[in-house]
Amino acid sequence: MIKLTDSEIIESIKRGNQSDYSILVDRYKNKAYSLLKRMLKNNMEAEEVLQDSFLKAFQALSNFKGEAKFSTWFYRIVYNTALTRLSTKKRKIEMEMSSIDDYEFLKSGFDIHSNEKEDTAKMVNELINRLPEKNAAVVSMFYLDEMSCEEISNVMNLNVTNIKVLLYRSRNILRDMIVQNNLVEELR
Amino acid sequence: MKVTDEILNRFIDGELNSEELKEFKDELNNSRDVQTQLRALQAASVSFKNIKEDSPAVDFTSKLMLSLHKKFKSRRRDSIFIASVASIFVVISLLIIVYILAQIISAAGPNSSFQPGLQVADIFEKIAQTFVSKFSSSSVSIVGTIISFGVIVSGYFYFDFLKSTRSN
What residues in B contact A121, CB-CB < 8 Å? Predict the structure, then answer.
C-alpha cells in the first residue's frame, strides 16, 4: 500500500475529502499524546488537549502553506494549546517556581535499590513526568519524535541555545540520579 | 581542557569540532572521573531514547472525526440560518425599493411634470403617515402586542438555536 505524504493528504482534505484527516490523526496522535501527557501530567487532560489541537489544526488547515513541515506546524499548535491549558489552570506558575536548577525535588521518591533493574525504565518515565513542562517537551520531541534542536526551537519559539540548555539539564539530572544509584552499567 | 557538562553533552550529540574532540579524547584517556561522567551521561541518553510512546484511547480517531463532522454540520446550519435571515432582509429591502420606484414611475406619467426629488419626498411622507396612523392611540396596543409576540417567538427560537449549537 502506498504511503501518502502529509502534503498529499492535506491537498486531498483541501479538495473536500475531510475523512482523509483521519490518516493524519492516526499518524500523529501517539507522539502528540506522549508530548502532552508529559507536559500536563494528566492522561485525561492530555487527551482533551490533543482533541482540541486536532480540531484547531483542521480549522487552520487552509492557512497551512507547506512552508514548514506539517509535523512542526502541528506540534506548535499542540505545544501552544498545552501552554494555554496550563496557564488557565495557573499550574504554570507553580511549575516555574520549582525551577530546574533546584532539582532535588525531582530525585526524591525513588528507591532504586529496592526496585532493581526492571524498574529503571519506570524511574526514567517517572523522572520525565516530574520534569517542568518545557524540559519534558524538549526531551519528548528530541528523543521520541527525533526532531532536531532547530525544529524544536521552531515549535517552542525559543532559540536553539535555550533548547540545548533544556536538553542538557534534563540529561544531567538523569545522569546524577544514575550515578547516585550505581546504575551506569545496568543501563548501558 | 576542562571537561564541563556542556562539553560532555556536545560530545554525545557529536557537536565537538575536530580540535575540541582531540582535546576531549586526551582528557578522557587520562581521567577516570571523566570516563565515569561520560558513561553515566551516555546511560542517561540511552534511557531517554528508550522512552515508550503513549497512546490515547483506542476510539480516539473515530470520536475526533465524529466531533469534527458535528462541528462542521452545526457550522453549516449556522451559515444557513444567517443566510436565510439576510435573504429575508434583502427581499424586504428590495420590495421597498421596487415599491418606491413604482410609485415614482406611476407619478411621473406622460402628462405630469417629472420631479424626482419631490416624488420621493411625497412617498416617504406617505410611508411616515402610514406608520403614524398605525401607532395612533387606538391601534398602538394592537401593534405593540404583535411586536412583543414576534420578539418572544423569535427570542425563543434564537435561544433554542444557541443551546443546540453549544451542546453540539
Answer: 47, 50, 52
Q: A22 vs B60: CB contact, 8 Å cut-off?
A: no
Amino acid at B42: Q
Question: Does B63 sit within 8 Å of A51, measured CB to CB?
Answer: yes
CB contact under 8 A, A179 and B36: yes
Residue that the C-alpha cell 532547530 belongs to: A150
- Domain end among A97, A127, A155: A97
Per the structure, the complete domain to which residue A142 belongs is given by 99-188
Decide if B153 is inside a domain. no
- pLDDT at position A78, please? 96
Closest-CA distance, A72 to chain B, in angstroms, reads 18
So what's the ipTM on this one?
0.76
A2 & A91 share domain: yes
Q: How many domains does one find in chain B?
A: 1
Q: Is the pLDDT of residue A110 over 70?
A: no
Measured over the CA atoms of residue A40, residue A42, residue A44 and residue A46, the dihedral's sign is: positive
* Distant-in-sequence, close-in-space partners of A139: CB < 8 Å, separation ≥ 6: A38, A128, A131, A167, A170, B48, B51
